Automatic annotation (TrEMBL):
Residues 211-242 are annotated as: Disordered. Residues 213-231 have a biased composition (Low complexity). This is F-box domain-containing protein. It comes from Massariosphaeria phaeospora. The lineage of its organism: Eukaryota, Fungi, Dikarya, Ascomycota, Pezizomycotina. It comes from the Eukaryota.
């Protein structure tokens, strides 16, 4: 008789459950469904009892935005939240109101959303930059992306943080009248080593996937089109100075300063670092928190970089910028 799943040792079954669920990505807020690899939980009581605890530990959760993440994770038991290990999300500031909110309201960095999920203990957090790549044209977004990553670097919810932005503007642009930026990744690397220890293994690295030269000839383009996939630009280490400082003194620019392309920032905590998000359980859904009288607000949360500028110029552009983000962040099922 051919062996069945229940006829093999439980230790092997648990390896199978972990491997199965590690290939499973659950997407929220994209208007599509995922294949149901969790259907194994419905086969019988014994398999459900053995396998269910491996699901949150091994699957990947992908959220369309911050609000989708909060809506989903604040609706489940905290015991489930503490077992989640892999999240990918586009990091919009929050809260955002698309309708019936013409008055100014405070918004906070994505990192503050993690403090609403105490016990979050991620092996890997992948974050996509929400401020570039969809038509915003003014320079305020560059510094906001820079500080968005820096605030994440200070939180405790992750062991490995991967931040992806489609361009180098967050650091290489000339806009930074408040002079908030410094040379990277060495500044962030020093910040993380200060937290975890110089010899802890903590590190921050930046990689760029260079764009193909716009000066390539047509024949070059034809040749590249016929080349194999291995000839595509590959990520390479990247470092740069703030663009506003380079404008003031071009001599400080390194050879990589003018490279253009998508940037991936990778941060890893030290070997002995504690990576568990602290905070207090709200005991309410995100809809309840967001729709309370006066809207959602928290003392101690840091408003995102341009929040006060939006408030001062609410009728002259602040409201419009906020609506651009809200429409993009809440455009899927909200």
């Amino acid at each position: 008789m051919a062996p069945t799943l229940l006829s093999i040792p439980v230790e092997l079954r648990e390896l199978i459950y972990a491997e199965l669920f590690s290939t499973y990505t659950v997407r929220h807020g994209f208007g599509s469904t995922s294949s149901n690899r969790a259907s194994i939980l419905q086969t019988c009581r014994q398999i459900h009892h053995e396998a269910w605890r491996h699901l949150p530990l091994n699957l990947s959760l992908q959220f369309q935005g911050t609000e989708t993440m909060l809506s989903t994770l604040l609706s489940v038991d905290q015991a489930v939240v503490t077992r989640i290990r892999h999240i990918r999300v586009t990091a919009f500031p929050f809260p955002l109101y698309k309708d019936n909110r013409p008055d100014y309201y405070t918004t906070y960095y994505f990192s503050s959303a993690l403090s609403l999920l105490p016990g979050l203990h991620l092996a890997r957090l992948e974050v996509e930059d929400c401020f570039h790549g969809f038509g915003l044209g003014d320079g305020w977004r560059d510094v906001v992306t820079y500080l968005d990553f820096e605030t994440l670097l200070r939180c405790d919810a992750w062991r490995e943080l991967v931040y992806v932005t489609p361009c180098t503007d967050f650091l290489a642009s000339g806009y930074d009248h408040r002079r908030k930026r410094s040379a990277q990744p060495q500044g962030w690397d020093a910040l993380l080593k200060e937290r975890d220890g110089l010899k802890s293994g903590a590190e921050v690295q930046m990689f760029i996937t260079p764009e193909r030269s716009s000066s390539s000839s047509v024949s070059d383009a034809d040749a590249s089109a016929s080349a194999s996939a291995s000839s595509k630009p590959q990520p390479q280490p990247w470092s740069a100075k703030p663009g506003n400082e380079v404008i003031e003194n071009w001599r400080i620019a390194g050879p990589e300063q003018d490279l253009k392309g998508a940037v991936t920032i990778v941060a890893r905590r030290g070997k002995q670092a504690t990576f568990v998000q602290t905070g207090f359980t709200e005991g309410k859904s995100w809809a309840e928190l967001k729709d309370q009288e006066g809207g959602f607000s928290r003392e101690g949360f840091t408003p995102y970089h341009n929040d006060m500028a939006d408030a001062v110029g609410w009728v002259y552009g602040g409201w419009g910028r906020r609506m651009q983000l809200a429409i993009r962040a809440l455009g899927h099922g909200f």
